[in-house]
Design goal:
- The chain is of the alpha+beta class.
- The strands form three sheets. It has a six-stranded mixed sheet.
- The protein is built from eleven helices and 14 strands.
- Helices cover 40% and strands 22% of the residues.
- A hairpin with a 7-residue loop joins strand 5 and strand 6.
Length: 359
């Protein structure tokens, strides 16, 4: 009798394993679906790390209790290997060559989480200047206070940077030591987010740098608290109301990001500049429609030279890599990493080195 019960349990777990593997693959495939058409289906992408963890747990379970069935999760993981690598790449360390450009992409949260000193200085300013980067792309970079703004402008100009800011745009800033040709805002429908294209000169050719801040979820502290209640107390009578309100809010943002990504790609195609660096805060994980669209045209720097999940947004139970850098085929990236040495924003900076491929 005990043997029969044990066999039934193993059969049920095998079925659960197959279901987990199929859901993992489906989760990855939803990154090909335009969220403007099926926003709730696309929200399913957010479950990718949980499903990945579940499938890995099944590997260890079968190894311990039924080794002959370990092929079940392994086949499931193999079928989703492309999406797994996008989410958590593993690369052999390779030092950047001499002359490579250093790029920092950083959502600075309007500098408000890093208090100004009496001179108008700021920990984020100090970090960026010390980074000695050739290209700095900032999101949510609006500076409040005349003293702070003047300090920033003077400090960056003294360090040899040009500050490229599009007309009417206050939140996206590109600071570069490369000569700036012009700056243009990429227009699309948004509640307050945008993208900016900066043409710079590098080795006699034009390089198009596109700095993006795609539609955010705009989750308040109250929303995040509700999320915690949903996870920690699912039996709470208010959980259903919390869940419904949270999904509706996230659905609105997801629906907007698809067309925004399409607009950015359309702009790049119309610009006709072959050398492109596209970066910023996408508010989406590597398993998402915007990242899938950009990776169809460009190379993901983190997938090419980064390691691990690389969470760039870590806030009270939320762990995501939503900051990204993509480059055209004429560039090779090195040593891409999320810099956790500074805790002055709700994001960490994403750093990479770019080297031009030989023609």
């Amino acid at each position: 009798m005990l043997g029969v019960l044990k066999n039934i349990i193993f059969q049920l777990l095998a079925g659960a394993n197959v279901m987990a593997a199929l859901l993992l693959l489906l989760c990855g495939l939803t990154s090909h679906v335009n969220p403007a058409d099926y926003p709730r289906l696309v929200l399913f992408c957010l479950g990718f790390p949980l499903l990945l963890g579940l499938n890995i747990a099944f590997v260890f379970f079968w190894l311990i209790f039924k080794p002959r069935r370990v092929w079940l999760p392994l086949v499931g993981l193999f079928c989703s290997i492309t999406f797994i690598y996008k989410y958590c790449p593993l690369n052999w360390p390779s030092k950047h060559p001499d002359g490579a450009l250093k790029l920092v992409s950083y959502n600075v949260a309007s500098f408000v989480l890093s208090p100004d000193d009496e001179k108008g200085g700021n920990a984020i300013f100090d970090y960026l200047l010390a980074s000695d980067a050739d290209i700095i792309c900032l999101q949510e970079a609006s500076v409040s206070g005349t003293k702070t703004k003047k300090y920033m402008e003077d400090a960056f100009r003294k360090a040899g940077y040009q500050m490229a800011l599009a007309d009417g745009e206050k939140r996206l800033l590109v600071c570069t030591r490369l000569p700036v040709i012009d700056v243009e805002r990429i227009r699309y429908e948004s509640l307050g987010n945008s993208s900016v294209a900066v043409r710079v000169l590098y080795e006699g050719d034009t390089l198009l740098v596109v700095n993006n801040h795609l539609e955010s979820y705009r989750l308040t502290q109250e929303d995040k608290q509700h999320y915690k209640h949903i996870i920690t107390d699912p039996e709470n009578p208010e959980t259903e109301d919390y869940s419904r309100a949270l999904v509706q809010k996230m659905e609105k943002a997801v629906r907007a990001r698809g067309p925004q990504a399409d607009s950015v790609l359309s702009y790049v195609e119309r610009a006709g500049i072959p050398s492109v660096v596209l970066c910023g805060d996408f508010n989406d994980s590597p398993i998402s429609y915007p990242c899938n669209r950009f990776s169809s045209r460009f190379t993901d720097a983190y997938s090419q030279s980064g390691n691990g999940p690389g969470f760039s947004y870590v806030q009270r139970g939320f762990y995501f890599r939503i900051d990204h850098v993509y480059v055209s085929d004429d560039w090779r990236t090195y040593e891409t990493y999320v810099d956790r040495s500074i805790h002055a924003s709700d994001h960490y900076p994403l750093v990479t080195y770019l080297s031009k491929r030989k023609k």
